[in-house]
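Q: Could you fold this chain for me?
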Amino acid sequence: SDGIRISETGETLFLNHCAACHHPNGLGSENGLPPLAGSPWVEGEESRLIRIVLHGLMGPVTVGDKQFTNVMAPLGAVLNDQQISDVLTFVRQSFDNDAAPVSPDAVAKVRKAHEGRVQFWTAKELGR
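A: Sure. Below is the predicted structure, expressed as structure tokens.
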């Protein structure tokens, strides 16, 4: 290999697709979107996190002692399985999070299991 990486890194993907709302430091904003730093949503079950990225999430969502009601746009049509794997692995291993990487195969499996879904997830549906 000549050292050139064709795909974007997880960090680049985060900055391009997530940081506008969740902020580059992963802390979110008081009246905006929830923090990714130290979030049980991020460090918890990977399939839940994959579903959120694929199909979006509609509030209310509680993180810590705060409730957020904004909508997270679905990114499943924008990002492929490898990109989702890269960005989620970055998020799960950044901002003081310490969770296992997410494989492209795990993303593909969740994508296939919920093929045809067009509506956003809700926290209640996701068991939170």
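A (continued): The helical segments are 10-17, 19-22, 40-43, 46-55, 81-92, 104-113.
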